[in-house]
Amino acid sequence: MNTKDIAVICKALGDNSRLRIIQMLFDGEKCGCKLLEDFDITQPTLSHHMKILCECGLVIDRKEGKWHHYSVNENTWNEFCYHVSSLGKVE
Amino acid sequence: MNTKDIAVICKALGDNSRLRIIQMLFDGEKCGCKLLEDFDITQPTLSHHMKILCECGLVIDRKEGKWHHYSVNENTWNEFCYHVSSLGKVE
DNA sequence: AAAACGTATTGACAAGTGTCTATGTATGTG
DNA sequence: CACATACATAGACACTTGTCAATACGTTTT
Question: How far is the CA of A18 from the CAs of A28, A29, A35, B38, in angstroms?
Answer without folding.
Answer: 15, 15, 11, 32
